[in-house]
Write a structure and sequence with these properties.
The complex is a heterodimer of chains A (about 260) and B (about 200).
Chain A (H helix, E strand, L loop, with lengths): L5 E14 L3 E8 L3 E7 L18 E7 L5 E10 L2 H4 L2 H17 L7 H13 L6 H15 L21 E4 L4 E3 L1 H4 L7 E3 L1 H12 L2 H6 L4 H19 L5 H14 L1
Parallel strand pairs in A: 3-5
Antiparallel strand pairs in A: 1-2, 1-4, 2-3, 4-5, 6-7, 6-8
Helix pairs in contact in A: 2-4, 2-9, 3-4, 4-8, 6-8
Chain B lengths: L9 H11 L6 H13 L2 H16 L2 E2 L6 E2 L5 H4 L4 E8 L2 H10 L4 E5 L17 H10 L4 E4 L5 H14 L5 E4 L15 H9 L5
Parallel strand pairs in B: 3-4, 3-5, 5-6
Antiparallel strand pairs in B: 1-2
The chains are: A alpha+beta (about 260), B alpha/beta (about 200).
Bound molecules: zinc ion (2 copies).
The site of one zinc ion has 8 residues of chain A, from α5.
Chain lengths: ~260, ~200
């Protein structure tokens, strides 16, 4: 039997960490290997042939050689550098947020072709999306679903009764929506959620990317959903997604001008 | 971490461990330097330890550009020959050394001491951007040259600075990004190539 020491895979770079003086540890997301790490040697030196192919958020065909503790990246060829994202501050910030939240939720070396496609198509669509926030909410809903945290939005999590078209409540710790009588039991901290908002959340959860991007959604509703998902994510991860602070600071800047 | 060496004394091990923390020095080199110092003259050891202490005691950040300095104002900010209307923004003080080595640039600098990295929680407030804005609003600067690294963090920082500075009506440029000297075209990535084409010049 031949033992191959090198292997290849297409992958998107979702995290990079400096190592020593000139190296980097990269976390990549691959359709065939899931989330995995490799060390990229000397990529922080200006003459590195690999560095441009292994920058954060690049989709590249990477070649690695097996190592004792960590594999070493010995080759990289860009498939898509998402150039139009890179030249726009708001877009690149949204893309970084997607990479970070995916990194946080996806377990190591668990293959999920669907989640890979979600990341790739979201990055591809981002420059063309009329409403970036709408795309982010779609991404979050589908990511949560892919990693097994699909929020329950049709029936009350407690009594299982179908939700009535009134104001219900979203309870992060319950993993979905509670009806008014179950909220009164007071076991979970919950946020009021309007019937309109719930409908849009269901649409984001069940719709495909194309139809979501083609459907105009009111900003107030998207902002309401953003708040609910943020609280759900915070509950699940027990920490903040760091790039949220940055996205917020960009928003504040917008108001000043 | 590597194992403590049972044959060496605590003092020797402590110094080996300190050296091993430095960039570019592995456990073997740390050991070699330590044993070298053990044999070296006491004057040499004294001079090294003085140099280390003075480094921290006599070095501060320039109150204007945040370059490392031996006085309130650094040697560049003190120099009347330099053009005060230009400011070149860099990530690290070491970048100034590289640029000064060429001796072509005659303006002033501003050191950010970092770059924006949203996923690491480093935002605009965590680097010396407020200091830059304060400087731009009250001094004679008319041209801002952005010299952040051609990395995702450097690009993000550059685009953010442009957004902050443009309303002030200043002329903003960025150091050209393109093919590195001595590299071969066929190995270049798309981002580098596209920027090299955008930044092409009359020849
Ligand atoms: Zn109920
Ligand atoms: Zn100075």
């Amino acid at each position: 039997m031949t033992h191959t020491r090198t292997y290849q895979t297409p992958a998107i770079i979702i995290k990079k960490t400096k190592l020593g003086e000139a190296d980097r540890i990269l976390t990549m997301y691959s359709p065939t290997l899931g989330k995995f790490q490799g060390i990229a040697k000397a990529v922080r030196k200006p003459k590195s042939k690999l560095s441009g192919h292994l920058e954060m958020l690049t989709y590249a065909q990477v070649t690695l050689v097996h190592g004792k503790t960590i594999d070493t990246i010995i080759g990289g060829q860009t498939i898509n550098s998402f150039l139009s994202l890179r030249n726009d501050l708001d877009l690149i910030s949204c893309a970084l947020y997607m990479a970070e939240i995916l990194f946080q939720f996806v377990p190591e070396e668990t293959v999920d072709q669907g989640l890979f496609t979600l990341l790739l198509s979201s990055l591809e669509c981002l420059p063309f999306a009329k409403d970036r926030n709408q795309l982010l909410r779609y991404f979050e809903m589908h990511l949560l679903q892919g990693v097994g945290y699909r929020p329950e939005l049709s029936n009350c999590v407690f009594c299982r009764r179908e939700l009535a078209p009134i104001t219900n409540a979203f309870a992060p710790s319950a993993g979905g929506v509670l009806c008014p009588s179950c909220i009164k039991l007071g076991k979970h901290y919950a946020y009021a959620v309007s019937w309109d908002c719930l409908g849009v959340m269901l649409f984001l959860q069940e719709g495909d990317l194309e139809s979501v991007l083609a459907t105009p959604i009111e900003t107030t509703v998207i902002n309401e959903i953003e708040r609910l998902i943020r609280s759900y994510v915070r509950h699940l991860l027990e920490k903040e997604i760091k790039s949220i602070a940055w996205l917020n600071s960009l928003k504040q800047n917008d108001c000043c001008h | 971490m590597d194992k403590a060496q049972p044959l060496a004394t605590d003092a020797v091990n402590r110094l080996i461990q300190e050296f091993a923390k430095l960039p570019g020095i592995g456990p073997k080199s740390a050991q070699r330097i330590t044993y070298y110092l053990l044999r070296a003259s006491s004057e040499q050891a004294q001079s090294l330890s003085d140099a280390l202490l003075t480094l921290r005691q006599k070095t501060q950040l320039c109150s204007c550009c945040y370059n490392i300095s031996d006085a309130d104002l650094c040697i560049i900010c003190r120099n009347p020959q330099r053009n005060p209307s230009q400011v070149l923004i860099v990530e690290q003080p070491q970048d100034i050394l590289a640029l000064e080595h060429m001796g072509i640039y005659k303006g002033h600098y501003h050191v950010l001491h970092g770059a924006i990295s949203p996923t690491e929680g480093v935002g605009g407030k965590d680097i010396r951007l407020n200091e830059l804005l304060a400087r731009l609003s009250e001094s004679r600067i008319s041209e801002v040259i952005i010299g952040t690294n051609p990395t995702l963090e450097g690009d993000t920082t550059a685009m953010y600075i442009k957004r902050l500075v443009t309303p002030l009506g200043l002329h903003v440029t960025r150091l050209a990004r393109g093919l590195p000297f001595g590299s071969e075209l066929e190995y270049a990535d798309d981002v580098t190539l596209s920027r090299a084409i955008e930044g092409r010049q009359e020849f």
